[in-house]
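Section 5.1 Outputs to date
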Amino acid sequence: MATYEQWKFKPTSFAVLQYQWLIHDGACMSESSTTRGGFTPSGVAAVRRASVESSPTSKATRTRHIILEAARAEFDRYGYTNTTIEHIVTKADVARGSFYTYFESKIDVFRHLAATIDREVASDVVAFERKRSGNPIENLRISNRNYLAVVRRNADLYRLVDEASAHDEEIKKQRLQSRQQHIARVAASIRRWQSKGWADPDLDASLTAAALVSMLSSFAQWLHVGGDTYDDDAAEQTLTEIWIRACKLADPDEVSQ
């Protein structure tokens, strides 16, 4: 039987959430392991979390999902600052101890919710960009449409992330990392277009990408979070036209003629 001191782990900094969750294969977590929320666990509740994460059952998965859905609803209702764990467990109809079986704290459960945005961008935008082929203008149109849809579906989380980042340095860091990754992807696309003779060869790909990403992100959040009222199809078309003009992006079929 492991002693408490053997289970007691030293706290580490939050590991920035990526698109994949950490998966633990052993019967228990090693001293270097972290929770899905990015913490090195300690104490009795940490032992329970380690056990659940190393071999989750269908019941545990359902309970965790219920808590996450309840947390999302209560954060949306009260805001990040005013939401309490009591709000969450009451909404989920679970005991407080059950909450701590899956999450370390209010900020821990919120970080998991905030990661929803990155996962959906990864599946709907990044995955599409990696497998796409054919006309770059049509691909750009679809990418912009998919991104606007992600923001629309997660408007509540985008609003809450703005609030929570004022209280949590790691959420702020994750926002910056997500932005930098988005810029890097767009810059790579611009360089590819330039190499094929489809885009202005004199453009600074990184700087242009940063400006276009800023425009798209800000516009999408004002449209779906801030209260702007524009038709989604018209917005998608206008955004794509701005990208085309900024990059002087040509249709490959026309270039080859």
